[in-house]
Design brief:
Shape: elongated
Order of helices and strands: HHHHEHHE
Radius of gyration: 24 Å
Number of strands: 2
């Protein structure tokens, strides 16, 4: 079938001039075919501030009910999937802000858990707990430990 939607025998088919389609190479450091993350998703879908608050409260409840040890084991098992126990139950996932890829175990434990946790443990008492509600005024619904670790919480 030719471009004019008619059938022709192969020897009588009209010859179309095929123009090679050349695409310019992207600027360094982006891989070919992959635009910068900022161009891919200007306004990514993130979990609402109420969803973030619910996850925080559920996390506190789970830590208490499992006597901390159970929560730590559960969290260690699923951290490589960018989740904590409450995020798993609520269908949330932590992703890297710049690439959108799921945060791995190291990012979840070392950067988000320990480093950002230390920053938050100092900053939250200084602000009398006001920083806990940061997702309510932040345009990307991020809290302090998201900003420090370069992550976002998105629906799974």
């Amino acid at each position: 079938m030719a471009s004019d939607n008619k059938w022709y025998p192969p020897e009588l088919a009209p010859q179309e001039q095929l123009q090679p389609q050349v695409q310019p190479l992207p600027a360094y450091p982006y891989a070919a075919g992959h635009p910068p993350a900022a161009q891919v998703q200007q306004h990514p879908v993130t979990v609402s501030p109420w969803g973030r608050l619910g996850a925080y409260l559920l996390e506190s409840l789970l830590i208490t009910v499992t006597l901390v040890v159970g929560w730590l084991i559960w969290a260690a098992i699923i951290a490589s999937q960018g989740q904590t126990p409450a995020k798993r139950i609520l269908g949330h996932r932590v992703v890297m802000q710049d690439t959108g890829q799921t945060a791995g175990f190291a990012r979840m434990f070392w950067v988000r858990g320990l480093l950002a946790g230390l920053v938050a443990s100092v900053a939250i008492p200084i602000t009398l707990g006001i920083l806990l509600f940061m997702p309510f005024w932040d345009k990307t619904n991020q809290n302090l430990w998201d900003k420090v670790s370069g992550t976002r919480v998105v629906p799974s």
